[in-house]
Amino acid sequence: MSGKHPSLSGIPLVLGGNVFGWTIDRDRSFEVLDAFYENGGRMIDTAEGYSAWVPGHKGGESETVIGEWLESRGVRKHMRIATKTNMAGEPGGLAPARLLERCQASLERLRTDYIDLYYAHRDEEQTPQAEVAEGFKALFDRKLIREAGASNFALDRLASAQKAAEAAGAPAYGVLQNQYNLLERDAYPPELQAFCVQNDVAMLPFFGLASGFLTGKYRKDADFARYPRGEGLRKYAEPGKRLLPVMDRIAAETEATLGQVALAWLLAQPGIAAPIASATTADQVDDLVEAMELELSAAQVAALTKALD
After folding, report:
1. 3-state DSSP call for residue 55?
2. pLDDT value, residue 22
3. Phi, psi of 149 (to 5 degrees)
4. For residue 180, is it within any domain?
5. CATH assignment at residue 166
6. Residue 233 per-residue DSSP state
7. Mean pLDDT score, 217-228
């Protein structure tokens, strides 16, 4: 699939950049980025809104760190950069003038003159989809972006956006980025999977490790208080009691880590081009890269899929 998408060709794994400038500072972010590059990683995902949810932050922190790293290492031409606009789903946030303004701001923070993959981070219905398509076309025409994507889109809106782009003679969204993992599957249901496969829309699932829960480090009540994201993951405690033992068994069978098992399951799903996963240490990067070599049996994939039934 990725061969038809210029931003994804040869990309088995995308490094999630939401942690940069948030749960890890600039120096630790550089260590993770260096490890990813040294391991052959060539694509990073970020957004203009990362990490506006943190008190004192205004957004753009992640893009800024990535831009400084790209410039200091001199590796821009070797990397693919994906970023997103309109994280809050602001009405009018995808209007052509706003797209251009926000894209140019991201380019400045990323210290580059083009973005490989530019997403509508969230849908908004105030701007007609034909105008949104024209806005993305203008970015293509200016050579500011090389591919367009949609994030957090439902099937009906993705399908109508594709039709609007075709009618406007504009490039359609070629990539979808929705939440999808062993614990969260509602945003990529079978009917959306089928649409993506039939229409050659590459799916890049975010939160592939469920914000770290699927690495197995949250097993006891005290574990949730130990990490910055922990309190928000308590919702997984009960389903985790059913899922983690199955993952433990398959990890033992394959001599892999739980995180590797979780990502291998993703890669076995229809329409998945590459998972997006974050890391906060160089060792975690090694674990992510090794996951790309793990192939689960059909029985193991089925056992994981049915673990929450």
Report:
1. coil
2. 94
3. -140, 165
4. yes
5. 3.20.20.100
6. G
7. 88
Q: Check: CB of residue 18 under 8 Å from CB of residue 44.
A: no
Torsion-angle region of residue 86: left (phi > 0), alpha (psi -120 to 50) or beta? Answer: left
Q: What is the pLDDT of residue 265?
A: 98
Tokens found for residue 291: 């996951």
Range of the domain at 287: 2-215+260-295
Residue 181 falls inside a structural domain = yes
Per-residue pLDDT at 1 exceeds 50:
no
Task: Look at residue 148 and give its three-state secondary structure.
Answer: strand
Confidence band for 29, pLDDT divided at 50, 70 and 90 = very high
- Helix, coil or strand: residue 4: helix
Indicate whether 209 belongs to any domain.
yes
Q: Which helix (H) or strand (E) holds 48?
A: none
What's the number of domains the chain is made of? 1
> Considering all CA atoms of the chain, what is the largest pairwise distance in Å, rounded to the nearest integer?
55
- The pLDDT of residue 306: 98
The answer to whether residue 230 is domain-embedded is: no
